Amino acid sequence: MEKYQISEIYVEPSAMERELTRRVLSSLPELPVYETDEARTSPYEITTEDIASSKKRLYIRDYKGEPLKPCPGTQGRLCCNYFIVNLAVGCPLDCSYCILQHYINSPYLTLYANIDYFLEKIDARLEAAPTGRSAAFRIGTGELTDSLALDPITGLSQVLVPFFAEKENATLELKTKTAEVTNLLGLEHRGKTVVAWSLNPQPIIDSDEAYSASLRERLEAALLCQEAGYRLAFHFDPIVNYRNWEQDYLEVVEELFARVKPENISWISMGGLRFSPDLKPIMRERFPESHLPLGELIPCEDGKLRYFKPIRVAIYRSLLSWIRGRAPGVPVYLCMESADVWRHVFGRAPSCDPKFTIDDL
Q1: Which of 144, 235, 321, 334 has the greatest number of C-beta atoms within 10 Å?
Q2: pTM of the predicted model, to two decimals?
Q3: For position 328, which CATH number holds?
């Protein structure tokens, strides 16, 4: 795996004495450190040339606001009642299809240092929530960054996993394309943390998921977590339609279940390649060798470009049949798809409510 490189660190004055800041600075002692709040207050128009360099600059600051938020989902699509905690904004990996290229207008990777504030707010929200399985929170940290890519220098998993181990009405999902699981091993998790991987065939990883772990490295990391007693999850997302997709995705499924026991999997999701029209020129400029923006994608009612619905349905049905043949009891769901697509794939939609839970599957 080619490794990302951080070359300089900026720290907001209020965050300089935070434990997380000290951990990062001690992990990267050779890098220049600049104490400044200018990175937060100065407006910035980021260009495509800036995106790659922004992945080399780390800005550590405090967070103010509500840390626990529902997944924004997308208009007209079923949402799985997922909640997000953004402990960082920006990702050191560099996937060609990543929406952050269009969504984030900062020349930095931003890492929030006041972790106690996050935990206090989350704790208060969980304490005030109804009890019972159907009211339990699924909480992920991987919306605006990779959950584990920076973990070797932040050690955040060593704070989050024990915290959620004590929460009866919440499950933490750490979603990653890396193999950075060393800090997870040996922690007391009580089955309350699900470690999840995005999966794609190796040709797609090689061409469109820069700095990420190989498929084999991801699955070997999953095996380590399985041996440590963690629940696991897998996300076939984004699924790419290309000449050899059928054989290649079947091989991914076979490799997955050659290593992972179905009874240890909490859920599997499937989601086709999708992105906003505004992202397409950025993809073509930054990744001229990628075939992803050249596919036959059509605009849908939510404004996203997607493969034609019959193509998506056919791919989902194939993938579902392969998964069901090896793991008939594992919950499988679609990410950001309409009730109509659900019915074509599963024969039904999970709920009349636009938001559902894993228990509805």
Answers
A1: 334
A2: 0.92
A3: 3.80.30.30
